Amino acid sequence: MSLDIWPPISPEELKVQIAETLKNELEWITTESLEVCRDLKHGLEDCYALLAPIDPGSTLVMSTPRNEKVKGTITRVGTRIVKGTLNLQLRTTSTTSLTIAPHQPIYIPALESLYTHLTQAVSLLDVTLSQERSPDAATLASSLTLLAESLDQATALLKGRPLTETDPTWQTSSCPAQHFTAATTTSSTGGGASTVGGVGAFAASFSTGGSSVNNPISFHIGIQESCVVLWLRVLEPVSAPVHFGVKLGLAIGTVRRLEHDEMDTVFKYNPSGDDSTLGHKKGNSGGGSGPVLSGKRSENAKTGPEEVHVREKVRVVSADPSLISLFSKLGFLGHVLGQTRRNLAAVLESFPQN
């Protein structure tokens, strides 16, 4: 079986007709891709709105399931945690109540980076769609490649690290003490309340033995699976002395260590943080509300890394409806963008390179 064109045309004219057909097809797919870009821009603006700093924000419950180790709420406005109160009843430190300082909100680094990627994506589409002359297919394909990279990185930030992996950034980017008002602790033995600054900074001295040990707490917040995740770690300096009663209890079995995946590892922990939680105030170290390792209070004091053990580790997860919706929208936009890029690439591959 053969296919003939009627009326017959010469081979030279056939080449001209093929080239003209490919040119028309390329113009058509470019126009269609630009229409998709307009839809993508509207979709990204919706995503942008979900992360916008609009009051009153999202109030999230931060509580551990089936126990009362951590109970409280935090409020997220945009990329910041602007207020929150947490009651901690951890086994290796006294009962503590933490309150986020209203004048020093906590910026979530993952959401800050996500906000930057969304801004870049919207700006790129603005430039692409605002040109007087429509871009050619090759230029449009390059722009869509950059857009796809931004969306992939934004989606990866919302997904976070796998649940089976430990995030090592807590050693350098835990929230320093200036994010909190002075913590109120209650001794489990005496029942009295006292005000200390044990979050994000080392206490000047450590009690030894009993349940009155008031160790510093690492407060690290991040994003996993579109949820706000809080890691609390009760820390102990490697050089801290071990009370004789604790040694004896471990030997005879009356005292048991809390088992977790970081119990036997020595970490280098920086209580001053890397300023990633300060957002636009990055670089302004500020002063902590609690004492630092040297025992001196200073508005601009920063301590260096210290070798510590993690005595207790608690992970608290709170699902954020806005972030879940944002992840879903980004996934859909990424699918539409991928299909558009494949269609454009298919036509470009069939077009002569010259």
Automatic annotation (TrEMBL):
Record-linked InterPro entries: RAVE2/Rogdi
GO cellular component assignments: RAVE complex
Composition skew (Basic and acidic residues), residue ranges: 296-307
Highest rank taxon of the organism: Eukaryota
Region annotation Disordered: where it falls in the sequence: 269-307
Pfam families xrefs: Rogdi_lz
Protein name: 37S ribosomal protein rsm22
Biological source species: Beauveria bassiana D1-5
